[in-house]
Amino acid sequence: MAACFHGLLSTFDATQEDWVDYTERLEHYLVANSIDDGNVQHAILLTNVGPPTYRLAKTLSLPKKPTNYTFAELVKMVTAHFHPEPSPILKRFEFNTRSQEEGKV
Question: In whole angstroms, what is the distance from residue 64 CA to residue 68 CA?
Fold first, then answer.
């Protein structure tokens, strides 16, 4: 007998949705369907990200395969790609080039 799942998890499309928003929806989907097994979560992630993001996950996980990483590790890798930390040099430059307006203490 086939399992009955709640909700619909669409394929991730970077042109239409933010990665962080997608992973939040994915986590809600996993909770709604009581999917606690890390291997199943991992498989659902990799089968629903779509071809471009799957290729990205493969590239980011080199020299290993995406299957060698946990669900959380994969999400973290792809998140770091879509939302990289700003360079400390850039942050320092922005801080040092700020000017104080008249009347501001």
Answer: 6
Q: Return the structure tokens found at 95.
A: 């801080």
Domain residues of the chain, as ranges? 19-96
Contacts of 58 (CB under 8 A, 6+ apart): 65, 66
Helix or strand run (H / E) with residue 57: helix 51-60
Closest CA to 88 of 96, 77, 80: 96
Query: Is residue 103 predicted with pLDDT exceeding 90?
Result: no
Q: What is the phi/psi pair of residue 85, to 5°?
A: -70, 135
DSSP designation for 83: S
Contact 18, 81 (CB under 8 A): no
Residues 45-61 have a mean pLDDT of 94
